[in-house]
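Hey, quick one: can you model this chain's 3D structure?
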Amino acid sequence: MAFVFCLILAALVLFATELVPVDVTAIAVMVALLAVEPVTATFVDLNLLAEPLYVLHQPGDDISPLAQGLSGFASTATITVLAMFILSDGVQRTGIIQLLGAKLTSLTGDSETKQLGATVGLVGPISGFINNTAAVAILLPMVTDIAHEGNTSPSKLLLPLSYASMFGGMLTLIGTSTNILASQLSAELLGRPFSMFEFTQLGIVVTIVGTVYLLTVGRWLVPGRIQPREDLTDEFEMADYLTEVVVREDSPIVGQTVREAIAATELDVDVVQLVRDKRTFLEPLDQKTIRAGDVFAVRTDRDTLVELLDLDGLDMVPDVTVDDAELERASDQQNLIELVVSPGSSLVGETLASSNFRQRYDATVLALRRGRELFRQRMDRIRLKVGDTLLVQATVDSIDRLDVNRDFIVAKEVERPDYRKSKVPVAVGIVAAVVGVAALTQVHIVVAALGGSLAMVLTGCLRPGELYDAVQWDVIFLLAGVIPLGIALQETGGADLIADLFVLAAPGLPAILVLGLMYVVTAVLTNIISNNASVVLMIPVAVEAAGQLGANAFAFVLAVTFAASTAFMTPVGYQTNLLVYGPGGYRFTDYLKVGAPLQAVFAVVTTLGIAYFWGLAPA
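Sure thing. Here's the predicted structure for all 619 residues.
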């Protein structure tokens, strides 16, 4: 038990600090649980320990610790979540959500109330039937466009987008990966999995309450961090970091390639574009041979610019403001965009230098925004995180490639000719069939979801190679890694001990207050670590606590599920919060200011709703 608690503590610290990615932490936990018994058995053979440590089973039983430790990969929850990612992607590639968004955009105009209502009203119901993280990723560009076109701060809409996706995800079993995992744990511990619409009635209640909050109190509390501006260079405050220089006849860099000239200086400077003979060239520029009279737009700070002018024989171009119009004169289309680093991106933990960003994507990063922090110098040294927003200049072709790259979300609607619009009724019909089969027949949700995934490919909604890109593998490995931790907590008696302490901390309190306390503890934990990890840790505790109180254990499981799926108070509490952190320019405290009152309201509404719909008396 002591070993498991030490492992949980280490995991909590790593989950909260993200010194390593959360999925890597989860796999490390799984490896530690698998290794402890054979390693300590070896110590026993060497007379260094009296007996081995058993954490995944009881000594003398017929249960294989190896099977227990690897059970997360065979878990119905893990496979169901994987299949739901594929179903969500099949729907996304038809463009139906973008079509719905375009319809709503035409109705909102410049009214912030209509914009907010459209945002919340669209993402909530959608999140009940496709993964809510995917819903936010799909709708983020649309919401950003609505804000800019209606002269509204994007910050006023993006946080409500994230929050609405969370409570919308509570409308059905398949709205979030947390619901699916909680259903499996409930089946294992209580013999009662969640049905497709198990908690839809309470989901509707919290969705209505959450929507009213966001349209009233929340609207007043959400800050307008980013001003509505058409000019991205202005939004990223680039005035002192972008300039144009011309190459003199006597410049020592004449005849060198752009790459050679930059490498020789070792200064913090990026060449953004080249103007030569009234033609403008964008990336790739590295192999361009520099000529006298070439005009370069460069990103650097003023002190570095002075050094650059002296070293390389350059002069500043007078009376030129390097703004969006100047940077986009290479073509008649948009060359300047915002990119958001998406969950599961291969760039998370990498730097612009280590990922070879410029050469890899034929694009130049001008600035990086992380919440309220703006980086416009030495960006190549910053390790990227989910939600980081990059101001990027690239050709139209490069932007098209970036838009279909799952490592990024382009925070502006880009015309996508490859949407499979003819497949809209097919994809929607497949999702409806999965929901209907799982809800109305004896077919398990994992079978229905896998069947739906297969149907997406067979009907052409998805191509076979797209299956693997559709899955957020970090979530899959996170689930596979933390599920054995819950098993170890039960097998060692850790869940019993925590439940004992939980009940002792609230002596004599009515069951409904303990239920509310269970919600609050889970919500606080989820706002610090992964939502899926908090479910794995808290559901066994909830079941044990309910047993000691003589209360309805299923009600306590639901309290944990709702709390873990609605983490409003920090940007790290839920992936959708991270997705809007950079594009909204938020501060960490904004989530606390807006989310804490909503979390408190949900604690009351959820507790009372569970007591009303399911009762607290033992079944």
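One thing worth noting: The chain is about 55% helix and 10% strand.
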